[in-house]
């Protein structure tokens, strides 16, 4: 498994930039809430000492909740989604998709609307 990579920032013009507080070693859970756009995201991860940390939920805790629990040897191989206009907001993440090495997938939002992005 490769070292975690940081890419970003992504999101709308509202709110504040967010980041994890401890250097991550392993992602344990991802929770995404939304409907026609992404409303919030929350991460549970382990640091190098094996201590578990929860970051988020960042955003508004509304919409449908989707959860991805990762096994000890499982890791994210792809993050993709779309961004674009949503109501009066000019740029917001409208959909997200996480894929793991074990084939688990979590999707949320309105994938058909917006400009696509992908990180593998």
From TrEMBL:
Keywords: Lectin. This is Jacalin-type lectin domain-containing protein. The keyword Cell inner membrane does not apply. GO terms for molecular function: carbohydrate binding. The keyword Transcription does not apply. PANTHER family: OS05G0143600 PROTEIN. It comes from the Eukaryota.
């Amino acid at each position: 498994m490769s070292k975690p990579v940081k890419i970003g920032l992504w999101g709308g013009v509202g709110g504040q930039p967010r980041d994890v507080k401890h250097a991550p070693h392993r992602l344990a859970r991802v929770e995404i809430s939304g409907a026609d756009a992404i409303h919030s995201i929350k991460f549970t991860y382990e640091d190098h000492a094996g201590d578990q940390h929860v970051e988020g939920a960042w955003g508004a805790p509304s919409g449908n909740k989707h959860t991805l629990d990762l096994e000890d040897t499982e890791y994210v191989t792809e993050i993709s989604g779309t961004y674009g206009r949503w109501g009066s907001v000019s740029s917001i993440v409208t959909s997200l998709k996480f894929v793991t090495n074990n084939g688990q997938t979590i999707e949320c939002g309105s994938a058909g609307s917006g400009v696509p992005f992908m990180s593998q």
